[in-house]
Amino acid sequence: MTRTRPFSPVIYLFLLLLSAICSATVENAGECAAVGTLVSSCTEFVNYGYPDPIPGSSCCDAMTVIGTYSDSSEKRKWLCNCFMDLINVNNSNATAISTLSGFCGVVLGFTIDPNTDCNFIQ
């Protein structure tokens, strides 16, 4: 009898959050809680600077989920604003937040940086 491995609870969480993100429209998505929840997978790196996120880690899996939502200009602007909110709240950790997508090899279509003006994102 072949046993199949059940999905990890982390995968279920990512799928649930992806569903929440994708079902939200840009107009009513002022709440960036889902993005914040996904980025919370990177808490150790954001707060302490280690371990570096690597592809396949829960942090990079979360960034990959976020990256799947950056498929239009409006969504990239919305994501950018969410990241700027995170940086404003966690100002002392702005550099760590800014490097997440690069460490994970995720292209968001904009630079996560405290100086980024989200209004100019294409």
**What is the second-level CATH architecture?**
Orthogonal Bundle
Shape: globular
Topology-level CATH name: Hydrophobic Seed Protein
Q: Which structural class fits the helix and strand makeup?
A: mainly alpha
CATH superfamily: Plant lipid-transfer and hydrophobic proteins
Range of helix content: 40-55%
Reported for the largest beta sheet, the result is: none
Quick check: average pLDDT?
A: 80
Low-confidence stretches: 1-29
Provide the number of structural domains: 1
Number of strands: 0
| N-to-C series of helices and strands | HHHHHH
Which range does the strand content fall in? under 5%
Q: Work out the helix count.
A: 6
Q: What is the radius of gyration? A: 15 Å
Between the first and last Cα atoms, what is the distance in angstroms?
52 Å
CATH class: Mainly Alpha
Q: How would you describe this protein?
A:
It is a single chain. Helix 1 packs parallel to helix 4 (58-67) and helix 4 (58-67) packs across helix 6. The chain has a single domain (28-120), classed as Orthogonal Bundle (Hydrophobic Seed Protein). 54% of the residues lie in helices and 0% in strands. It has 122 residues and is an all-alpha fold. The protein has helices at 9-23, 33-39, 43-48, 58-67, 73-89, 94-104. The radius of gyration is 15 Å and the shape is globular. It comes from Capsella rubella. Keywords: Signal. One of its GO terms (molecular function) is lipid binding. Residues 1-24 form the signal peptide.
